[in-house]
Design a protein that fits this description.
Helix 8 packs across helix 22, helix 14 packs across helix 18 and helix 16 runs antiparallel to helix 17. The chain folds into 3 domains: 94 residues, no CATH class; 134 residues, 60s Ribosomal Protein L30, Chain: A (2-Layer Sandwich); 250 residues, 2-methylcitrate dehydratase PrpD, CATH 1.10.4100. The radius of gyration is 23 Å and the shape is globular. By secondary structure, it is α+β, with helices and mostly antiparallel strands.
Length: 505
C-alpha cells in the first residue's frame, strides 16, 4: 500500500506540468485521497454526502496548497464554486491562507499592474480588531491599513500566516509612502456581517475588487474590470447549513464523546498545536514584547502555583503575537489568541500531571470543541472577548478532562468560566490583549478546580444557565441585542482618538 509520501510524489509527478485549472487541481487531490480517513471526516460533517469526502490528510492538503499558490492561474480553481468535494473547500481555504492579505492579495492577483490606488471598506468589527494589531516582520509596525497595502504590494505567500516575515524594508517604505501620498482610503461600513471587508485596487486603467465575508478565508465576490469572476455568498455555498448549525445542535456530552473518539491523525494535530504554543516558554521571562506581561510575571512569580505559571506563559505568548513577533501559534476558532488560551493552560496542566500524549490530545480536542461551540453562538468577531469567554471555557473543560473529571464537571467548569468573564469586552486586537489572555488562562484553571469539587455555577445565576446549550442561546441574544451597541460606541471613541492623534502629530 502506498504511504502518504508516495501518494504526494505520485500526485506531483503526474501533474507537474499542469496549471491551477479546476480539473487539474481535483486530479491532484484524488491522487492524495485516503480511504481510511474519509469515513472519519464524513462523520464530522454529517450534512454532506459521504462520496463528497476524499479524506485527504491535512498535512498533504497543506503541502499541495503551498505548491498551487505559486501557479499563475490558480484563480481558475478559486473561482470554480461551489466545489465538488469537501477536500477542495479545505484546499481553497489553505491556498488563501498562503496569501499575503486575503482580500488585497486575491485582488492583486487579478490586477495586471502595480496598484496606484487602494480602497479598503470594512465592517465595524474588522476595523476594531485590526486597528492596532502588530504586523509580523515589520519591526513593530501595526494596523490594518498598512497590512492591506503590504498585502497588495509585497510579501512572501510561501510562508502562510507569517507571509510578511522578513519582508524587505524597501517594501515597507514603499507601502508607507503609498499611504502618505494619499493613495490609500478606508471606510467603516455599517450593516455588514461582522466578518466583512472589500478591497478595491486600481492601476493602469484597471479596477479589481475583492470581498471577503463571513469567514476570514471566504472570497464572496471578485470583480475585475466589471466582470464578475466570483459571486458566491457563503450561505449559497453551504446550502444554508454550516458547521455552526451542527455544533449548536449538540449538548455537552456529545462534545465530550467527540473529543474521546479522535483518531491518530487528529491526535498528531493536537500534539503539534501544543508543541507550537508551548514553544513560547523559550521566550517567557527572557524576551520583553508588547507590554511585558510575561517577563514581569516571570520576574516575580518565582516558584509560584500552576495557575500563576499558566498566567505568565499565556501572557508572554500574547505579548509576542500582538506586538508582531514571529513566533507561530496554533489557532482555535480562527484566532491565534483563542489558540493560546485554549491550548497553553491544558498543555501546562498535562505537563504538571505527567499525562500521556493520548490524554493530552483528548483534552485539547475538548478545549477546541468547547471554544468553537461558544463561538458558534456568539459569532466570529464579537463585542465579547472570545479569548476569555470561548477559549477560556474550552481550556477549563480540557483541564477537567486531564484530572479525570466527568462530562458534567467539565461542563460546569466551562459555565463557571463564562460566568466569571462574561463582561469582558473586545475592543480590538492589540498589545493589551495579553492582559485579557493571561487572566482568562489563569481563570480557566480556577474554574476547573472548582468544578472538580462540584462547585461553581450549578443553577441559574443572573443570565448564566447551568446548561451550556441554554447558555449558548443566551450568549447569542446578549451579543446581538446588547453588546452589538457597544461596537458602535467603541468605533466612535476610536475615531475620536485617531483624530486627536493626527492633530497632535
Amino acid at each position: 500500500m502506498e504511504g502518504r509520501g508516495d501518494r504526494r510524489d505520485l500526485a506531483h509527478g503526474a501533474h507537474r506540468e499542469v496549471s491551477g485549472a479546476p480539473e487539474a487541481v481535483r486530479a491532484r487531490l484524488l491522487a492524495l485521497r485516503d480511504e481510511k480517513n474519509a469515513p472519519f471526516m464524513a462523520k464530522l460533517v454529517p450534512t454532506l454526502p459521504p462520496e463528497s469526502v476524499l479524506g485527504v490528510r491535512m498535512p498533504d492538503c497543506r503541502s499541495l496548497a503551498r505548491e498551487l499558490c505559486r501557479e499563475p492561474d490558480i484563480g481558475l480553481f478559486l473561482a470554480d464554486l461551489p466545489h465538488r468535494y469537501l477536500d477542495e473547500n479545505n484546499l481553497h481555504a489553505l491556498i488563501l491562507n498562503e496569501e499575503k492579505d486575503y482580500a488585497a492579495a486575491v485582488a492583486a492577483r487579478h490586477l495586471p499592474t502595480q496598484p496606484e490606488g487602494i480602497r479598503l471598506e470594512m465592517s465595524v468589527a474588522i476595523y476594531k480588531n485590526g486597528r492596532s494589531v502588530g504586523i509580523p516582520g515589520t519591526n513593530g509596525l501595526r494596523g490594518l491599513t498598512l497590512a492591506c497595502v503590504l498585502g497588495a504590494l509585497g510579501g512572501n505567500p510561501d510562508k502562510g500566516l507569517m507571509a510578511l516575515e522578513d519582508i524587505p524594508a524597501a517594501t515597507v517604505e514603499q507601502a508607507q509612502a503609498f499611504i502618505d501620498a494619499g493613495k490609500m482610503a478606508e471606510e467603516v461600513v455599517q450593516g455588514t456581517p461582522s466578518m466583512w471587508a472589500r478591497v478595491t485596487l486600481s492601476g493602469g486603467g484597471h479596477t479589481v475588487s475583492c470581498t471577503v465575508a463571513r469567514k476570514h478565508d471566504h472570497v464572496e465576490r471578485l470583480v475585475a474590470d466589471g466582470a464578475v469572476l466570483v459571486d458566491q455568498p457563503l450561505e449559497a455555498q453551504s446550502g444554508g447549513t454550516d458547521w455552526t448549525d451542527e455544533l449548536t445542535a449538540m449538548h455537552f456530552e456529545e462534545l465530550w464523546n467527540l473529543a474521546l473518539g479522535i483518531d491518530d491523525a487528529i491526535v498528531r494535530q493536537m500534539l503539534e498545536g501544543a508543541r507550537m504554543n508551548m514553544a513560547i516558554l523559550d521566550h517567557a521571562g527572557t524576551e520583553q514584547a508588547g507590554i511585558g506581561i510575561g517577563s514581569a510575571l516571570a520576574k516575580h512569580n518565582g516558584h509560584g502555583s500552576l495557575s500563576e505559571k499558566i498566567k505568565e506563559v499565556a501572557g508572554a505568548a500574547s505579548d509576542l503575537r500582538m506586538s508582531g513577533g514571529d513566533v507561530a501559534v496554533m489557532s482555535s476558532a480562527g484566532s491565534g489568541n483563542h489558540g493560546i488560551v485554549a491550548v497553553i493552560p491544558v498543555a501546562m496542566t498535562a505537563r504538571e500531571l505527567g499525562a500521556d500524549d493520548r490524554k493530552l490530545a483528548e483534552a485539547l480536542a475538548l478545549s477546541h470543541l468547547v471554544c468553537g461551540y461558544i463561538k458558534a453562538y456568539t459569532g466570529r468577531l464579537t463585542p465579547t472577548c472570545g479569548c476569555a469567554v470561548a477559549a477560556g471555557a474550552g481550556a477549563a473543560a480540557g483541564i477537567v478532562r486531564l484530572y479525570g473529571g466527568t462530562p458534567r464537571q467539565a461542563e460546569l467548569a466551562a459555565i463557571t468560566l463564562v460566568g466569571t468573564l462574561l463582561g469582558m469586552i473586545c475592543d480590538g486586537a492589540k498589545e493589551s490583549c495579553g492582559l485579557k489572555v493571561s487572566n482568562a488562562a489563569s481563570e480557566a484553571w480556577s474554574a476547573a478546580m472548582l468544578a472538580l469539587e462540584n462547585r461553581g455555577i450549578r443553577n441559574t445565576q443572573g443570565i448564566i444557565s447551568p446548561d451550556i446549550h441554554e447558555l449558548g442561546i443566551t450568549l447569542r441574544e446578549f451579543n446581538e441585542k446588547i453588546f452589538s451597541a457597544a461596537d458602535s460606541v467603541m468605533i466612535g471613541l476610536m475615531t475620536r482618538q485617531n483624530r486627536s492623534a493626527e492633530s497632535r502629530a
